Amino acid sequence: MTNATGGSGRALHFAALMGGNAALALGPWFVRIADTGPVAAGLWRLVLAVPLLAGMALATGQKLSGYRPAVWAAIVGAGVFFALDLGSWHLGILHTRMGNATLFGNSGSLIVMAWGMAMLRRWPHGREWLAFALALLGSAILLGRSLEMDRATLIGDLLCLLAGVLYAGYIVLLQRPRASLGNWALLTWSSLAGAPVLLGIALALDEQVIPQVWWPLIALALASQVLGQGLLIFALRHFSAPVFGLALLSQPAIAAAVGWLAFGEVLGWGDVVGMVLVAGALALARSTQG
């Protein structure tokens, strides 16, 4: 009986792990089919998710007030970085293939790893060197393939890479508050802090902000900001970092499949090789982060 219960528990946690990655991989599709601008889609992703995030924080006993000024400053700064990350990523999604957007948008793992080594003042070693080498080679292949297709596609890749850099800033700023506060509370306040930034960018770009059709934006908020994040938070403590990193590989595969089915994005062998190399680098980077 114990073995059966343990087996069902492991199956549930693994399903949550893969389900969270699948939900996050669908985000670019919802951005593309939304009838708002891409940055405005990011705004609604945050705003629509806040009530659910706050509810989850309260339901799990996480406090939403009474923080020290330094903690508030870190959360607001992280929210600004997260908003800039979403704005850059959503703009890039419209100009490159969905598989590329997902891979480059997740490049923050490598950047956080590099930042950690810089703080420790040490050179990479072992799997870290391999992760950097795979990332550079795979990125060079993918960027070259994008340039062959269209200069706009290359710009889309670069915007998604910039999003990865900004996401790394978000992760770094939240490191200290995360040690004492719950994930749901942090997501709630960072989302609220980021929403005005995205609204300002959307208005500056003269995007359509108010949608006529709401369901893609509701689905984006639920899939990317609530369901995806929530399932990964639930699964995180039940798996080692290498397993968690390997599960990340499902995201670009699902995104590429959706890109092919929904938008006719056909991948050549060069694309596949580049994606495998970058995905392997991300898995290695995640496995070094504890």
Describe the protein in words.
With 290 residues, the chain is mostly helical. The chain has one domain (21-287). Helix content is 81%, strand content 0%. The chain has 13 helices and no strands. The chain has helices at 2-25, 27-33, 38-59, 69-93, 98-105, 108-120, 127-149, 151-180, 183-204, 215-236, 241-247, 250-263, 269-287. Helix 1 packs across helix 12. The mean pLDDT is 84.
How far do the termini sit from each other?
A: 33 Å
Mean pLDDT: 84
Report the structural category. Answer: mainly alpha
Query: Which radius of gyration do the C-alpha atoms yield?
Result: 19 Å
By DSSP, the count of extended strands is: 0
Strand content: under 5%
> What is the total number of structural domains?
1
Helicity, as a percent range = over 70%
Number of helices: 13
Low-confidence stretches: none
Largest sheet: none
Morphology call:
globular
Order of helices and strands: HHHHHHHHHHHHH
